[in-house]
Design goal:
684 residues; alpha+beta; four-stranded antiparallel β-sheet; 25 helices; 23 strands; 38% helix; disordered N terminus
């Protein structure tokens, strides 16, 4: 068979260490591991069958050894023991993972209940400590651009005609506070410095109040829909989610750290002109008189009439609050003295290399990682950020701060492992989600809101491997059809199949930061008659640096700038004294069936990944660059989903390879005229 270099014997494979020195035979694994692997293989077969068949194929058999290995690692993490695939755990412990009737029947069946906000309980509500609320002035800490933007509330209001239409559709805001507790809550909020009082004539919007669970406590949320409906849409907010973190590239173990700003939203004080937009239901003068409002004039000034409590701090539930919180956090770190460089921020505009201390900001949370050799610099960066936050009135929770170290920590709902340089869903959270999902499927019906919550948790865990989102198709349609219903609805069989597929794929949901780029580039293309794949080799070190810099073209389409291989790549190589790229055609095949061009382009992309994997040695955990000239396919591969079912089928093929082989796929759009795979796609 022709090698990747286009002819002659195969070139040496990329020097990646195989995951195991010798593939273990299936009988060497415990029965529990084999049972977990069987469920996983059923999901893999569903994906490879395009959602239409479950039979085992040659491709499934080829993948089974690696699935067994992943299942053994997953079971070991779930049981909290070293990986031992031969010895069965046995008993109840082993049943926790594999045996369905023990594994899935131990969770309280909440899958059919409506997910509603809770009534505020004064004894459980979590508030800032005395003297901590409103310690950070909003306009003083915002960047100049955004300080001007938020200075005048009137500038953010919609035109009156649009507000009138919104008012006709408006529902009364949720207010879940018992009458007896409301007076006590108002007094407590005033003592903590979170509210003031205004007369009814000064109120611009009356908001609601409710609570959501926060461990054993409650988080206080304002129902700001009356205010939100009057205002323009907030500025776009880009946060570093799991999909971005999965793209980081490390060469070995890393030190990681995190911190959490205590009660961040309620630490930010609003300008006084904003207070009337966040009023609570009115209280009597007797309630106000119990506070120190007005000082010595309290009894005279509030003797009669009604008063509205108004929030003086950033309310959770206002649609602008996340943007304000993120911008303030970023600006405080930007102003920090010593140790902080914004070239080290983890964001889509900068590189993904962990060759220096890198840090991220996610609303009230902060985290980072660095090579072990850069521990001293990481400690300096960590200290500089905490000092800057404290000086700005945004001190952190000491109990939740973790200074830089090679450690395992949970941050942004994911498990960071510094020693293994890995990033994955926490096993305990994943197991709980698997149990609840399986119970829901067994019941055969669910409240749509509860299903949306479960699917939302799955989506967050799938983001490090975005192609796995291709599992969900009918589930999204089901949510669109029944999303507004309050009563339970029978699940479609296709929805149940997709949810069970997610449960089976759970052992494969892991991500390593040690996935080096291959020493060749790949391009795919398709015409109405056939598909082609081309590759280009060069010096391994040069191509890996070049590939890493291509992240700047991630999610960029023709309207936002595009990459031209014949110009940009050759210019980059020439600046470093290298020869221009030479492309060789390795796949040129005729399609048997006529399909839309987007589907054919997706099939060509599958051919490209299969061709890369078609090596005698089994190597895993690598990154590869794929150039594609079809925006539909680039969008689907980037998002992990597509509205076209035929394209979605091809994405599922790629998802299986990406999950099993732990491939990180960087897809870059290029113009058709410069696609080197155009020629082999038409030479059939």
């Amino acid at each position: 068979m022709q090698g990747l270099d286009g002819g002659g014997p195969r070139s040496p494979p990329v020097p990646l260490k195989p995951s195991i020195s010798r593939p273990l035979e299936e009988k060497e694994f415990s029965s529990e591991v084999r049972e977990v692997a069987s469920a996983c293989m059923a999901s893999v077969a569903f994906m490879l069958g395009g959602g239409k068949r479950d039979e085992t194929s040659a491709a499934v058999a080829r993948l089974r050894p690696m699935v067994l290995e992943a299942s053994a690692e997953f079971q070991a993490k779930a049981l909290g023991t070293p990986r031992c695939p031969v010895a069965s755990q046995g008993g109840a412990a082993g049943s926790r993972i594999a045996r369905g009737k023990h594994f899935f029947d131990t969770v309280k069946p909440l899958y059919f209940e409506r997910l509603e906000a809770e009534k505020v309980e004064l004894a459980r509500v979590a508030l800032p400590a005395l003297g901590l609320a409103g310690t950070a002035e909003m306009l003083r800490l915002l960047p100049t651009k955004w300080a001007k933007y938020y200075a005048d509330p009137e500038s953010l209001l919609l035109p009156r005609t649009r507000r009138a239409r919104g008012r006709q559709r408006r529902k009364k805001p949720a207010f879940l506070v018992e009458g007896k507790e409301y007076a006590g809550l108002v007094e407590l909020l005033f003592k903590r410095g979170m509210i003031s009082f205004v007369r009814p004539g000064a109120v611009r919007s009356e908001t609601g109040l409710f609570a959501v669970p926060k461990d054993s406590e409650q988080r206080l949320i304002n129902d700001c829909r009356p205010t939100n409906e009057k205002q323009v849409d907030p500025p776009p907010l880009e946060l570093p989610g799991p999909d971005l973190l999965s793209q980081l590239q490390a060469d070995g173990p890393v030190v990681c750290w995190k911190y959490d700003v205590a009660s961040c939203f309620h630490r930010i004080r609003l300008p006084e002109v904003w207070w009337p937009f966040f009023a609570l239901p009115a209280v009597s003068a007797d309630v106000v008189a119990k506070t120190d409002f007005g000082g010595s004039r309290t009894r005279r000034s509030v003797k009669k009439g009604m008063w509205h409590p108004v929030f003086t701090v950033l309310p959770m539930g206002w649609k602008f609050a996340p943007h304000i919180c993120q911008e303030i956090h970023m600006e405080v770190v930007r102003r920090a003295v010593g140790g902080v460089r914004f070239q080290d921020l983890i964001c889509t505009q900068l590189d993904r290399r962990v060759d220096r201390p890198r840090f991220l900001i996610y609303l009230d949370d902060g985290a980072g990682l660095a090579p072990v050799s850069k521990l001293a610099e990481a400690l300096e960066l960590f200290g500089a950020i905490l000092t800057a936050l404290a000086d700005s009135g945004l001190s952190t929770k000491l109990a939740k701060n973790l200074p830089p170290a090679v450690q395992v920590m949970k941050c942004l709902g994911m498990r960071w492992d510094g020693a293994d340089a890995s990033f994955a869903p926490p096993v305990e959270g994943l197991l709980d989600l698997m149990r609840v999902t399986e119970q829901l499927v067994r019941a055969g019906w669910a409240c749509p809101k509860a299903l949306q919550s479960i699917v939302g948790r799955w989506v967050w865990y799938l983001l490090p491997s975005r192609l796995a989102l291709s599992v969900l198709s009918s589930t999204y349609r089901f949510a669109e059809v029944f999303g507004t219903k309050a009563e339970p609805v029978a699940l479609w069989s296709s929805v149940a199949k997709e949810l069970r597929t997610l449960v089976g794929l759970a052992p494969l949901l892991r991500c390593s930061w040690r996935r080096p780029f291959l020493d060749f580039l790949t391009a795919s293309d398709a015409s109405e008659t056939g598909g082609g794949v081309s590759v280009s080799r060069s010096r391994a070190d040069i191509l890996r640096v070049f590939s890493a810099e291509l992240w700047s073209y991630w999610r960029r389409f023709p309207s936002e700038g595009q990459f031209d291989i014949t110009a940009d790549a050759d210019a980059w190589m020439g600046q470093r004294g290298e020869n221009p790229l030479v492309w060789r055609h390795v796949v040129s095949r005729k399609f048997k069936f006529k399909q839309g061009i987007a589907v054919l382009e997706a099939r060509a992309a599958v051919d490209a990944v299969r061709r890369v994997l078609d090596l005698k040695e089994r190597h895993r955990r690598f990154s590869m660059v794929l150039f594609v000239d079809n925006t539909v396919v680039v969008g689907g591969l980037t998002k992990g989903r597509s509205k076209s079912h035929d394209v979605l089928v091809q994405l599922r093929f790629l998802a299986v390879y990406a999950l099993v082989y732990e491939i990180r796929l960087l897809v870059v759009y290029i113009p058709s005229a410069s696609n080197p795979a155009d020629e082999p796609s038409r030479a059939v």
